[in-house]
Design the sequence.
């Protein structure tokens, strides 16, 4: 009877290597999701193959595929939030809340158009159906949505809106910009008006319905 084969002891990762590998795993999983459009095509083995490591290396960072896909979605939400805040800060730091709200809507659309695959991962492709741990409540608590609600609340507090339910207004505005973004991504050859004109008109129409008359 042959002796039991012993696995060589795992070499402890040097400082920073573990975090770098985690980032590579997330990037590979996001790439597979974007390329296939199907969470079933993403497996621990396929991600490990893309990264160039063994499956056990993935499990050192993520308990299972579900946890990995949740982390991919959260990373994309963080990227969306950072993009929007940077867009506003560069164009109108300290501006009034209505201007910020319009810039927020424009930034959202532009993020989707500049990053169509990450956007699809976020909103158009449920990575694993009802992924455990990434519920609608978790989506609701994403930083980008919280900042939108806070921005609307600033408008309410300044007496700029007819509506006083900040969260309800935020839901409507999110639905508007999501619809625009999805249409532009999915139907790029449709004869849309120029992007800036389209966004301005859409936000003008939305604003006329919620802004208080001077």
Sequence:
């Amino acid at each position: 009877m042959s002796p039991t084969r012993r696995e060589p002891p795992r070499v402890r990762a040097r400082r920073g290597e573990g975090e770098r590998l985690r980032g590579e795993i997330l990037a590979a999983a996001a790439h597979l999701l974007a390329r296939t459009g199907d969470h079933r095509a993403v497996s621990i083995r396929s991600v490990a193959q893309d990264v160039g490591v063994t499956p056990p290396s993935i499990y050192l960072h993520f308990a299972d595929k579900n946890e990995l896909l949740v982390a991919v979605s959260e990373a994309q939400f963080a990227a969306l939030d950072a993009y929007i805040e940077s867009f506003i800060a560069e164009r109108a730091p300290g501006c009034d809340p209505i201007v910020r709200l319009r810039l927020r809507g424009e930034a959202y659309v532009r993020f989707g158009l500049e990053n169509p695959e990450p956007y699809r991962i976020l909103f158009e492709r449920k990575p694993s159906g009802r992924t455990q741990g990434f519920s609608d409540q978790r989506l609701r608590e994403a930083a980008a949505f919280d900042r939108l609600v806070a921005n609307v609340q600033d408008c309410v507090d300044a007496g700029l809106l007819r509506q006083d339910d900040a969260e309800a207004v935020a839901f409507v505005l999110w639905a508007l910009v999501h619809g625009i973004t999805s249409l532009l991504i999915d139907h790029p050859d449709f004869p849309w008006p120029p992007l800036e004109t389209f966004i301005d008109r859409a936000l003008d129409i939305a604003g006329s319905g919620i802004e208080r008359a001077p």
Notes: The longest helix spans residues 65-91.
